[in-house]
Every structure is written in C-alpha cells, then in structure tokens.
C-alpha cells in the first residue's frame, strides 16, 4: 500500500461545517511621546480600534441552493468468478482458460451513493461519472424527499462528468459561475450527502488552482480544504456569490476520508461536457498531438526564459495538427488565444474546450524569441503530460557512456539519430538520466554521434536541456553541468 493514496469520493457525502475561525481585534498602537524640556503640555492620542474581520454568512447560500442539490443512489452488478478466486499463476487457471473457454462467471450486486445538482428546471442533473459507473438503476432523491428514476444521458470518464435526466418540471436550479475568476484564498462552500447524510454543508477556502493529478486527466482541478467525504462526489462547490464554480470529485487520503485535500472539476469543463451530451449524446475534444511537461527553473534557465511557465513540448505526433502547424520539440507554449499558461496542466484543458477544426493561436517561445503559431485542432485526444522528478543538480560534466542506435533501434524509436545511454553517472545521473534512455538532442541540436555529443557538451554553459526518449514518451531533462 502506498503511504499516500488517491481516493475517489464516490460512496456517500461530507461532514457538516466544523471548526471555529477566530479573528483577533486589531488595535492601532499610539505613538510614544517624549516630553521635551521646554514643553508646557502633552497631548494624548486616543487609541483607535479596528472592527474585527467579519466571517462570511453562508446561511443564505445554503437556503437558496440546498433544494437544487440532490442525493444519488445507484444499484448494479459486477461480474465476478463463481466459487473461489483462482490465481493466474495457478495451473488450474490455465486449465480453465484452455479447456473451459472461460472461468465460471457470476454477478455481485453493488450499491453506491453520491451527490448531484440540478442545472435546468426540466430535470437535467450533473454529477461525477464514477458515481453512476456500472449502474443498472439510478435513483435521484430531491431535497423535498421526492424520488425519481434517472436516465444517464452520458458519462465522460476522462473528465469524470456525467449528465442525468429525471422526468420532472419546474425544479429549483443552481446558478452557474466562473471558476476562472476564482482566486486562491476565497471562501467556498460544498453541499452534498457525505456518508449518506443528505444536505450537509461544509466550508473552507480555495487552496490552489489548475492542479494536475496523477490520474492522467486533462482537468485543471480546483484544490480546496473543504471537508469532502465519500458521498460528496458530484456535489456542487459554491463561491460566496452563491454560484457553482466546480463539482467535488476527488480527495487525497490515507484513511479513505477527508484529510484536508479535496479537488473539484472546474464548472467550465463540466458545462462544456453537459452541452455536448445533451445536444449530441457524445463528447468531442480538441487535439494538438503533442506530449508536454512543466517548465521548472532549470529548464527555464536552459531555454532562456525569464521565469518557469508554460508547457514544454517534448514530442510531436507525426501527422498531428501540431506537426502540420510546425510545432517542434523544445518549443515552450506560453499562451493560447491570448491567455497565459501558468503551467503545462493548463494547456490540455484549454485545447479540450476547442471544437475539432477550430483554430487556436499559440504563443510559442523558440530559440530565445516568441512567435504566434495558428493550429487547427484535431478530434479528441488527451495531451500526455510527461512526468519528471528532477533531483537536485550538482557540479560536473554529463557523465554518460553511450553508443549509436542500431538500425532496428532507430526504427522502433522512429528517429534518424540518437545515442543509447548504457551507463549514467555524475551530472546525468543526478538529473535523472538512466541506462536505456535515448539521447535525441542537446539544447535543441539533434545528436547523431558520440563525438557530436562531446563537442556540444564541451561548449555548453552551466546548464543543458537534454531531450531523451524513455519507453513510449519523450521528455526534456535539465542537467546542471557546473
């Protein structure tokens, strides 16, 4: 078991608002008055008392919106093997596979709970896709205790958004806000059914924005410290204007319950999915066809950027919209359609909102200068974000033993050049380069021979950006050469 696990909050909803927030009185300190010898009188300045900071009153938000928040219960079946489970390494497992055709199958009933919220008066409801996954029957319970059988209009696993429909009219609805205007430190409020306790409210602040999570999703999550527990999944996250800015979706937890880190899907992402599912029954997303990674300080220094920002292109898919537009490995995408990208995680979400065939104007940093590149986005494909844990850098030259690729290795790597790393020591090892990596370029120069690599490293400054291929992905590794 990993010491820290990602728990998807799907089975019931959050604890009530807890904790007391105390703000002390701020008092201005009067100036100290020295009395000169020639002074005949002294003046006393009365102390100034500043009123304590007021806590937000969330009663009106709860009263106005709780009727539009629903409890969702699901029942279904999961296919299982009848009788004892057989280990795949057991000889009898192969016997059943070869002579029995398949292992005996059965079905185990499954039940779950979650939350949702009404976005149209005629019964359209948003929730998480994982809440209704494997559901044979979905029941929606309103705040006024009425219950309806719901139809799943569509569920998008990639964004974890599902759209339900119930046969009802004149229902209360929530107001949709804009998460893009939300700032870190703002108060937010969640309403849902933690552990089945319906219409529970919990509050906190926005802890961070545009969080990329290890699930590989393109969603730029809103991180909060709002108490979210199993059953809160699919419930709304409100700002202090009473507008929904997100859908509570996941938590980080060692215990399976709330431990201070909860994540919500931005409402813009969810409403884009809802519009497409309602209109067409399917979801389409824009595609660039690039692998990207975050720019840290070392990479920013290597590429001559003023600060770490944007999405570094580590590879470009052949024949993709990015390739046709002229994007290259080593390009740093700083913005899209005039909007600055603070991190690589912002790019996939922005591209996904584009319709296939729609134009996107990218602001790209290449060889020390910015340029605009227009791309006609393709159809659906999540941008793969290369993960890179960069160890602390140290002094020294590159420190690798390499050899040219064989023709077969070049064919598999789809490259004309490159050098295979057989040993890694010194600066290379400290930066994370390891045996089996293929060095493709250094500081933007393609590598074809050992002599060329030595020459480039000898002339390089204190830092080098080395593009390596590792498995099926390519990524830039910043190396401190000292």
Sum up the structure in keywords.
single chain; 482 residues; alpha+beta; Thrombin, subunit H; Pdz3 Domain; 3 domains; six-stranded antiparallel barrel; 15% helix; disordered N terminus
Note down, in words, how this protein is organized.
This protein has 482 residues and is an alpha+beta fold. It folds into 3 domains: 1-17 and 55-283, Thrombin, subunit H (Beta Barrel), CATH 2.40.10; 286-385, PDZ domain (Pdz3 Domain); 400-480, Roll (Pdz3 Domain). The chain is built from 9 helices and 31 strands. It has helices at 59-65, 91-99, 267-280, 297-303, 321-325, 346-352, 407-413, 426-431, 450-459, and strands spanning 5-8, 26-27, 49-50, 69-81, 105-120, 124-127, 137-141, 147-156, 161-165, 175-176, 187-192, 200-211, 221-224, 236-238, 243-253, 262-266, 286-287, 290-294, 311-316, 332-336, 339-340, 359-366, 369-376, 378-379, 384-385, 400-404, 419-424, 438-442, 445-446, 463-470, 473-480. The strands form 6 sheets. Strands 18, 19, 20, 21, 22, 23 and 25 form a 7-stranded mixed β-sheet that branches. β15 (243-253) and β16 form a beta hairpin. It is elongated. The relative contact order is 0.11. Residues 1-42, 91-104 and 381-396 have low confidence and may be disordered.
């Amino acid at each position: 078991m990993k010491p820290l696990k990602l728990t998807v909050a799907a089975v019931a909803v959050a604890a009530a608002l807890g904790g007391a927030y105390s703000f002390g009185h701020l008092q201005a300190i009067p100036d100290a008055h020295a009395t000169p010898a020639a002074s005949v009188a002294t003046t006393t300045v009365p102390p100034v008392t500043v009123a304590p900071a007021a806590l937000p009153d969330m009663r009106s938000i709860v009263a106005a919106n709780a009727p539009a928040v629903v409890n969702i219960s699901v029942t279904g079946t999961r296919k299982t093997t009848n009788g004892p489970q057989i280990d795949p390494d057991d000889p009898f497992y192969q016997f059943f596979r070869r002579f029995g055709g398949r292992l005996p199958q059965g079905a185990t009933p499954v039940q779950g709970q979650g939350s949702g919220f009404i976005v149209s008066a005629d019964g359209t409801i948003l929730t998480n896709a994982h809440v209704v996954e494997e559901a044979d029957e979905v029941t929606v319970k309103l705040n006024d205790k009425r219950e309806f059988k719901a139809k799943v209009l569509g569920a998008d696993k990639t964004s974890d958004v599902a759209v339900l429909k119930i046969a009802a009219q004149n229902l209360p609805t929530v107001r949709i806000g804009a998460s893009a205007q939300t700032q870190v430190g703002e108060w937010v409020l969640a309403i849902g059914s933690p552990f089945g306790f319906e219409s529970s409210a919990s509050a906190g602040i926005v802890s961070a924005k545009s969080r990329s999570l290890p699930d590989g999703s393109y969603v730029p999550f809103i991180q909060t410290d709002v108490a979210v527990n199993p059953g809160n999944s699919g419930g709304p996250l409100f700002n202090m204007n009473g507008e929904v800015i997100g859908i509570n979706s996941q938590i980080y937890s060692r215990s399976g319950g709330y431990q201070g880190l909860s994540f919500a899907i931005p409402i813009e992402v969810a409403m884009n999915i809802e519009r497409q599912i309602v209109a067409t029954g399917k979801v389409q997303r824009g595609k660039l066809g690039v692998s990207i990674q975050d720019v840290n300080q070392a990479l920013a220094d290597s590429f001559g950027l003023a600060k770490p920002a944007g999405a570094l292109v580590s590879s470009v898919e052949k024949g993709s919209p990015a390739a046709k537009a002229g994007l290259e490995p080593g390009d740093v995408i700083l913005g899209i359609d005039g909007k600055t990208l603070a991190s690589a995680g912002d790019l996939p979400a922005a591209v996904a909102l584009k319709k296939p065939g729609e134009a996107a104007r990218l602001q790209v940093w290449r060889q020390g200068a910015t340029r605009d590149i227009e791309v006609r986005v393709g159809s659906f494909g999540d941008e793969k974000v290369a993960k890179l844990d960069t160890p602390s850098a140290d002094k020294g030259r590159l420190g690798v033993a390499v050899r040219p690729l064989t023709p077969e290795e070049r064919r598999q790597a789809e490259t004309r050049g490159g050098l295979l790393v057989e040993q890694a020591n010194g600066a290379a090892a400290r930066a994370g380069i390891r045996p089996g990596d293929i060095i493709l370029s250094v500081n933007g120069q393609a590598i074809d021979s050992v002599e060329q690599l030595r020459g480039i490293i000898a002339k390089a400054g204190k830092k080098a950006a080395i593009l390596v291929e590792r498995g099926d992905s390519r990524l830039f590794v910043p190396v401190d050469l000292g």
